[in-house]
Amino acid sequence: MRTRLTISILLLSISSLIYAQKHTISGYITDRNTGETLIGATVGVTGQYTAGKSTNDFGFFSLNLPDGKYKLIVSYLGYGKYETEINLKENKSFNIGLEPSGNTLSEVVVTGVSNNQRVTQAQMGVEKISSATANKLPVIFGERDILKTIQLLPGVKSGGDGQSGFSVRGGTMDQNLIQLDDATVYNASHLLGFFSTFNSDAIKDVDIFKGTAPAQYGGRISSVVDVKMNEGNNQKYAVSGGIGLISSKLSLEGPIQKGKSSFLISGRRTYADLFLNFDKKYKGYQLYFYDLNLKANYKFSDNDRLYISGYFGRDILAIPNVFGFDWGNKTATLRWNHLFNSKLFSNTSLIFNDYSYNIDATFDKNSFSILSQIKDWNLKQEFQYYPNSNNEWKIGYNVIHHTVNPGQIKTNIAEIKAPDMKEGLESAVYLTNNWELASNFKVNYGLRASHFNVLRGHDYFVLDKTTKEVIDTLDKTKSAANYLNLEPRLSMSFILNDFSSIKAAYARNTQNLHLLTNSVSGSPTDKWVMNTNNIKPEISDQVSLGSFVNLNDNMYELSLEAYYKKMQNQIDYKDNANIQSPFVVFETQLLYGIGRAYGTELLIKKNKGRLTGWIGYTLSRTEKQIEGINNNLWYAARQDRTHDVSIVLMYDLTKRVNVSAVWVYQTGNAVSFPSGSYEINNQKLWLYTERNGYRMPAYHRLDLGLNWKLKETQHYTSELSFSLYNAYGQENPYIITFETNKDNPNKTDVVQTALFKQIPSISWNFKFK
Amino acid sequence: MKTKTLYIISLGIALVSCTKVIDIDLNATDPRHVIEANLSTIKDSSMVKISKTISISDTNPNPAVSNALVTITDSNTNAIDTLSETKPGIYKKLGLQGVEGHTYTLKIVSGAKTFASTATIYPTIALDSIIQKNLFDQPGAVGPGGGGGPGGGTAKTSKQIPFQAFYKTTPEVESHFQIKVTVNDSINNDIEIRGSKEFSRYSTISPIRVRVKKGDRVRLELQRIDKAVFNYFTGVIENLGQFSATPSNPKSNISNGALGYFKAHTSSIKEIVVK
Fold this sequence. Notes:
heterodimer; A: 769 residues; mainly beta; Immunoglobulin-like; Ferric Hydroxamate Uptake Protein, Chain A, domain 1; Maltoporin, Chain A; five-stranded mixed beta sheet; 5 helices; globular; B: 275 residues; eleven-stranded mixed beta sheet; 11% helix
């Protein structure tokens, strides 16, 4: 049935090709001043035939049209429109540079999505945020952060105070695929989440797909956060930077070949520890992170372009002679874009990424160290084929070799046999098409086949079915397990009129790597594990339905989306699980079952005018049912939150000063609090009644910000940013513990620890160009 | 680890994290039976204690459960011992003594409820010796805390000192222990546990730190217990620490929803005077 449908779809696409002599318009759309390619810019034609396309991740577009006279219109929000008349008789190639419309009050860049694309595109459950938006909002510790900004969108829930970890549509933190130029970032946070690994000066934009991403994405079941780095200015050299209370950054960019290729280097470091060292007690203590983003591209010919991008970041924490702890990511991406012809675009990427942490401890004369690492080699090949203006095919494959080393322990005390490392091979092939069936009906359909091979040569355990204890070891000379999954994806839009549409989507996603963590928001020592003979790939099936309306010449965007997600092979920890100890075989601590998540998301957004911003509201529920937990009954997942509200307002007071406010409100996480107590061997024990049966108190917070442009000339800009995090000083609990009252040993105190009250910050940002 | 890291980070960013006592609406729970049943091979040291749970908001001590019918049956001989209440909630029998290799059944009838459990006494594993300092401290080293750093050496004022106990065990045979530490005859710690199969790779028995001073008598009692009780106390330690990802009640080896344990054990005791 499915094959017959695919074939008929293919035939339909081909038949539209035949009726007239056709030629192709193709090319790249860039920012005229910097040469940065513009992703998602709209390229449209009117005339004897009307069609439109948006540029791909590399700013490329291709339109195949019947010969004739057309008006070509290129637009991108925040840029002036480009129009030209063309007479199409042969294939034409255009490289068009758009002029930024400057900081006029009327055209503030809120998102990169232009015009009413949000209404018309087939894709749903997707949000795009540009660095420009993130830069306008108030920040914690004066550091702009795009990963914090996406947490203000409906369906995306923050992990907690100042945290970079987040949950999408009821998923856990590890069910988000966070990638930087296609390289997986396994831990996207610095300083336990108060900063993200993404330096806003080096980031172009971020797309977030809430579980209904097209088939070229795979590997996580909740979302894809696709972060793209800036390429660097190919017109002239520019230096930009910022100085904040606890961190500073500096970027340098410029042309390698003027107008053709460029480079970018951007670095950051925090220096809170320098203040700490003023106090004699903390002399020699270290506490900082640094990171470095590098990117360069080189154009060999009109049809070949090479990109190299890399990221290197490390957090360092040390108490002299006692304790040292460092962690961080390394990623490198080598990419080759090749244009076979005006209809066939190819992108080949070779990617390396590595996340590791290292702990050294010295007690008395004994030393102890743990090194934990997850390392991937990843090859991606994608062909994009534009047969005609109604179809946009993507066909590709992806092979990843994973090495997971959970913790190599070294000590001078005794011989310790640490758990063995594991290796896995994750492969996928996919095919997807963005098909404009009719001017009011668009479909994005695709299929992804993913395979996971648990590679031989390492220790895998057979567990007793009921006690979960290790009873045997598998033969090392054979692969421990193979998993194959087919993931169909479908997303479609029915365009009702110029300003509204209805969309529906279905997607299956699978996940082969899983994170074991004690918290909702994550810690550097959380453990990534792969599928094994016991851990099976997580599978989610999501259906969603949405309605999209743009009003008043796209000044207002309204959307309402509802989703229902069914999940299989979900992992949770057995009662009293110990998932931190490197000596415990982690699989003995795990139980598996099913999950469900459903909810609705409302977004009201104002894109233009002096006042811009949005209101997001999510009503949702996420539950699990796992044999051996909570008497086998459904229970709320830890990240389950009923209500989630974000209000984001940005207002231009004058041409130079803008103010912003962000207010968030969230139902507290589901937690297991004790309901009573009892005594065993004269020690007080807590009595628990159900898993995650209680709630943390609701979380709410107001942040205020002010950006003041001190100077703006053609060659120099400088700006002061003030932020007040948690303006009304709400003490949101970070941890709640139960303690015996000091005066009355029979009384129990419930004690909450809050991390932050008000945090004011100031930073100064500049740019020479 | 995380709390430590967090602590340092909080310091670093010069934040004043604020702690306060709050009110949280917690469900009142129906009182449940808590049973601590010990059957020892040492004469007259067996005892069963029965109490009930209280809600978090209660400020009274855990109530003792009186008038229960407590019996222990030796499955090998079918002899039944009935324990009688000597103090509220405390049940004992003069002359009661467990036998190595025998399996016992505990039965408690309290009101309309009946609870039962079985436990086996495994052969004694004897303590060889105890030494007063960390095995791995280098001899002759003098640190701020005396020989071998803060962990070792002599002590005039009371401080944490590690004690190392040795015993012989058959490798690859799984055995489980609970260690009862008394200092000058008062119980210092009786929830410490060790499992030999899991730990034999590292040391005979990992050091136990006890706060003592010079002249104190430290007594270690190595109780061989069965696996269910070992798992129970693993849960107790997790529960006390409130550090598990999934806090819950330790898994009891007693039926019908009772909390607590039935422990049948052998004992081997050694004493040392703190130098």
